[in-house]
Design brief:
Elements: H1 25-35, E1 47-52, H2 59-76, E2 80-87, H3 88-91, H4 95-106, H5 117-130, E3 133-140, H6 142-147, H7 153-159, E4 172-179, H8 190-196, E5 201-202, H9 208-222, H10 230-240, H11 249-266, H12 273-283, H13 297-313, E6 317-318, H14 320-333, H15 341-350, E7 354-358, E8 361-364, H16 369-387
Parallel strand pairs: 1-4, 1-5, 2-3, 3-4
Antiparallel strand pairs: 6-8, 7-8
Helix pairs in contact: 1-2, 4-5, 7-8, 9-10, 10-11, 11-12, 13-14, 13-15, 13-16
The chain binds adenosine-5'-triphosphate and magnesium ion.
Adenosine-5'-triphosphate is lined by residues 14, 17-18, 21-24, 53, 55-61, 180, 214, 218, 249-250, 253.
Length: 388
């Protein structure tokens, strides 16, 4: 059925990677240059790169685009480069599962049954050498894997592939690790950390103007030109660059897609600002104070601890240890059991009421401090009344 709103809804999907990635040209260049060396490719050592940056700012898309460029570059030199992309959140598990996956993708003829993890890598390297193929391995969401496993050796192994068989060339030319932040460093030992090597390439968050450019481009592929005006893109860009979303383009595309659906079902012929706000308040519950009613008491007290700390320190972002000390005062004052604030903070963060940038930077988002404080105090007063 023809839609008055959408040209092609699938172009808003997170799985679709557009040909052009505006405002990531510099990163594409930087990454490709690292891997395209002067004496190419056998004398060129294994190159390891880590990429860091917050959610939805094009890390995965940029690296996948680079892999296409590099494959083409090899092809022009009559060589074959094969990319294996591993999303460790989906395909992870342990070292063994990861290497088996690499083996399946790069050397499907070699059976992975009954051999050790080390042997798998050895076989893989030999297979590539003998079949004159080169490989690029992308390990996405490495922070997720490391946080959820004791088996951190995968970093050590994959960053030292060229030492596996000294004296023979290593046909895995590049390994790229992608993560959101540096917290996973804490779980690595010094040898692993040093093999991760040089400084990471950090992707900056997009600015308001950049988000506007990106959305304009994405919308021109996905929407009927009459279905949305620049006021809509401006509004979505503004919400997206607020401290709550850090320029997360995935969120922006979702907001636009849902609003498009709403415009379609309401038959308005175009997306209105009201529809954007309506969808936003649905996917972003912290905007409506009513949601405080759904919080369990322990989370409300934790929120109170955050508010008191912010008030006492007179700054928008405060440290976990400062909140912890305020929480223990509150527990004493209100005769509560000890507050397990780490868990509650996590919950409040996933409800997008607070923002945890790091353990030293925790703040309120969505609602203004001025609005939130009286609401929380009011709720706590009601708990006290119902107790007595
Ligand atoms: N510069 C850009 N131009 C067009 N689309 C973009 C751009 N940057 C990001 N996107 C789109 O935003 C969405 C999220 O991007 P991507 O998956 O690459 O982010 P990420 O940084 O890997 O996020 P996460 O940390 O959550 O994995 C994708 O749909 C992607 O196509
Ligand atoms: Mg990603």
């Amino acid at each position: 059925m023809d839609s008055t709103i959408f040209l092609d809804r699938s172009k808003l999907s997170a799985r679709y990677i557009p040909d052009e990635l505006p405002h990531r040209e510099k990163q594409v260049d930087e990454i490709c240059h690292l891997f395209i060396g002067p004496s190419f490719p056998d004398d060129y050592p294994l190159t390891v790169l880590q990429i860091l940056g917050s959610a939805g700012i094009g890390k995965t898309s940029t690296v996948l685009k680079c892999s296409k460029i590099l494959e083409l570059h090899f092809d022009r030199n009559r060589l074959q480069l094969v990319t294996v992309y591993v999303n460790l959140k989906l395909q992870g598990g342990n070292k063994y599962a990861i290497y088996r996956y690499l083996l399946e993708k790069l050397a499907p003829d070699i059976p992975a049954q009954g051999i050790s993890a080390e042997e798998m890598l050895r076989y893989l390297l030999r297979y590539l050498r003998e079949s004159k193929k080169y490989a690029l391995i992308i390990l996405d969401e490495i922070d997720y894997l490391i946080k959820n496993t004791k088996d951190t050796g995968v970093i050590y192994d994959l960053t030292r592939l060229n030492e596996f068989e000294p004296g023979t060339p290593c046909n895995i030319k590049m390994v790229i690790f992608i993560a959101r932040g540096k917290e996973f460093y804490e779980k690595l030992d010094p040898a692993e950390l040093s093999s991760l090597g040089r400084i990471p390439l950090e992707f900056p968050e997009y600015t308001l103007r950049q988000v506007g450019d990106i959305l304009n481009k994405r919308c021109s592929e996905a929407f009927n030109p009459k279905a949305l005006g620049s006021d809509i893109i401006d509004e979505v860009a503004k919400i997206t660059t607020s401290p709550l979303f850090h320029g997360d383009i995935r969120f922006a595309l979702d907001l636009l897609a849902y609003s498009g659906n709403l415009a379609e079902s309401q038959g308005t012929g175009r997306i209105t600002l009201d529809q954007i706000r309506q969808v936003y308040s649905q996917i972003h519950p912290a905007d409506t104070a009513n949601n405080l009613d759904e919080l369990p008491q322990s989370q409300v007290y934790t929120l109170m601890a955050v508010i008191r700390t912010i008030r006492a320190k007179r700054k928008p972002y405060v440290e976990l240890k400062e909140i912890r000390s305020s929480a223990s005062d509150i527990a004493e004052e209100f005769k509560l059991k000890k507050l397990e604030i780490e868990d509650h903070l996590d919950e409040l963060c996933s409800k997008r009421i607070i923002d945890i940038r790091s353990l030293k930077e925790i703040g309120i988002v969505g609602v203004s401090f001025k609005d939130l404080e009286p609401l929380v105090m009011h709720k706590i007063k009601r708990y006290k009344e119902s107790k007595s």
